[in-house]
Write a structure and sequence with these properties.
This protein has about 375 residues and is α/β, with parallel strands linked by helices. It is built from twelve helices and twelve strands. It folds into two domains: about 240 residues, Aspartate Aminotransferase, domain 2 (3-Layer(aba) Sandwich); about 120 residues, Aspartate Aminotransferase, domain 1. The strands form three sheets. A seven-stranded mixed beta sheet has the order 1-9-8-5-4-2-3, sandwiched between helices. It has a three-stranded antiparallel beta sheet with strand order 10-11-12, with helices on one face. Strands 6-7 form a two-stranded antiparallel sheet.
Length: about 375
């Protein structure tokens, strides 16, 4: 859709150059499309980026699922997770047979409220899954302290936070287990794809086997251009491996990441400046010297109808979104016995996601912010 204001300003999009296209054509020319040399090379590049071992998989949801499974999370267990997250976080937990326990968020940053999570812990709680919403991480040290005191594994859903720094160190380069997504609109993309970063080599080996249907040591054979013909399986596995086509895209995206990240930060700063001190538009507190934003979310105080506002923006050629419907309101995850999530319930109707991707211009962001403020005047 376009308008008399010009071309449609898209909410999000992939930022792809000729480098990625040529890399994919190279894989097609070699006619080895599955998991092989490119996946090995992408993992090696990511290990240099994080300074830790990495396993690549087919998407971010698979990364979370395999990380949970490899950490021994299963039927009868519970995992603490903020309700305000993509459904994938909850689905990955329930895929193991465990129960996702919806937790509240802090009202400023929309990050997991550790005090609320503590109240929801039981003797069945085995892990906590902080979600790095929009690229922010909140009090990650506090979450790790809480986990250590209670014997919990920490599975970070870092899908939004590729490249974000915490205490001047990259998210994923420290801690227990961090999971990233490389889908088409993330901070880097491999078309689809994701990865798990972890120092626990036993966990990583379980993940590497499980991504290839549980066939033991098949990763090593595929890295050498071979395959297993005797299928030793010791645990439940899944077809979750990454392909060479995905990895070829990811390798080039990682090379371009400094520029992609800088552009995301620049655009978010323009939004922040435009909305500074606005009467009803509240920005999320993010330090863009450290945060690489995946999406840009604002809160609109006393918003009467988000749907109506989105329709008016779209008529002006501006897409917008909502991140996300709280999972505790989803029929599949309803728990009427759980204590209410007062902050999430109050804040959710006020959230609106504005366009953010590296191919936006400063003028695009000025236009989006100006039109939004005009419609709210």
């Amino acid at each position: 859709m376009t308008s008399d204001k010009g071309e449609l300003i898209r909410l999000s999009k992939s930022s792809i150059s000729d480098l990625e296209k040529d890399a994919v054509l190279g894989v097609l020319d070699r006619e080895f499309l599955g998991m092989g040399a490119e996946v090995v090379a992408f993992e090696a590049a990511l290990e240099l980026f994080f300074g830790r071992p990495v396993a690549c998989v087919v998407n971010g949801t698979a990364a979370l699922h395999l990380a949970l499974q490899a950490c021994g999370i299963g039927p009868g267990d519970e995992v603490l997770v903020p309700s305000l997250t993509y459904i994938a976080s909850f689905q990955a937990i329930s895929a193991t047979g465990a129960k996702p326990v919806a937790c509240d968020i802090d009202p400023l940053g929309c990050i997991l409220d550790i005090r609320d999570a503590e109240k929801r812990m039981t003797n069945r709680t085995k892990a906590i899954m902080p979600v790095h919403y929009t690229g922010g991480v909140g009090d990650l040290a506090g979450i790790y302290k809480f986990a250590e005191e209670n014997g919990l594994r920490v599975i970070e859903d870092a899908a939004h936070a590729f490249g974000t720094l915490y205490n001047d160190v990259r998210v994923g380069s420290f801690g227990d287990v961090a999971c990233f997504s490389f889908d088409g609109i993330k901070n880097i993309t491999s078309g689809e794809g994701g990865c798990i970063v972890c120092d626990d080599l036993q966990v990583l080996q379980k993940i590497r086997d499980a991504r290839l249907l549980g066939v033991q040591n098949d990763t090593e054979k595929r890295a050498a251009g071979e395959r297993s013909w005797s299928f030793g399986v010791g645990a439940q596995g899944w077809r979750y491996h990454m392909s060479n086509i995905m990895a070829a895209i990811g390798i080039e995206q990682l090379k371009r990441f400094p520029d992609l990240a800088a552009r995301r930060r620049e655009l978010a700063r323009v939004y922040d400046q435009k909305f500074a001190d606005h009467a009803v538009i509240r920005t999320l507190p993010r330090d863009y010297d450290h945060v690489v934003p995946h999406i840009y979310v604002v809160r609109i105080k006393n918003l009467v109808s988000r749907v109506d506002l989105q329709e008016k923006l779209l008529a002006l050629g501006i897409q917008s979104g909502v991140h996300y419907q709280p999972n505790h309101t989803n029929q599949y995850y309803l728990d009427e016995s759980a204590a209410p999530l007062n902050v999430t319930t109050r804040i959710y109707p006020e959230l609106l996601t504005l366009p953010l991707h590296p191919d936006l211009s400063d003028d695009d962001v000025v236009r989006v912010s100006s039109e939004l403020m005009r419609l709210l005047a």
